[in-house]
Amino acid sequence: MIAPWNLRNFLIRHPPPATIRLTTTEGEQENIKPGKRSRVKIAETIVALAPDLVECLDNEGCVLRAMRLDSGDPVRSGVAPSLPAEIGGDPQAAMLSHFANLVHRAYEHATDIAFGKLIELVERMDARTDSIEQRLERTEAQWRREARERIDDLYDVAADAAERAAAGEPKDQILNSLLQGAMAGQQAKVAAAAKAKANGNGKGS
After folding, report:
1. 70, pLDDT greater than 50
2. What is the C-alpha to C-alpha distance for residues 83 and 99, in angstroms, rounded to an integer?
3. Which of 100, 101, 156, 169 could form a disulfide with 164 if both were Cys (CB 3.0 to 4.6 A apart)?
């Protein structure tokens, strides 16, 4: 069975799949929508399901690439290099070559692990950045909505003041009335916001 890390390398190749189709040895199929999920987590899930065939599909359902999980893991250093004939009978050369091969394999394994952790970190940072951008977009939309509501209120106040002035009402009386109305409206908005926040906290507890 292939390791999750090697399957993850298969999944991130370009072009990226829109759908991942899993087929068991009995012919049953299951589709996975990768979206923005971590490819490492998807690979671990696929390995746990142990399908026979993994296919990457595009938006139209065409196969981009496929892999059978029983093919095993590709091993870059599966066979140690043989010694040249000139030093083949030297035990010290054989010992040094064996030691170098062990060190090479150790570094190769450590590099794969470190790179995998780095990929997981980058994916988490991307997910966090997307979450922050979505919150900023919602905050900006709310601010624009509130700004538009305040502008509309000011237009209504100006129109009301113009009508009352045209009717001959004293300016001082108009000004006091407008100030009282504005303060009352602001207090009502603050109270409504506080009530909505309290109700939200109550639901979340």
Report:
1. yes
2. 13
3. 169
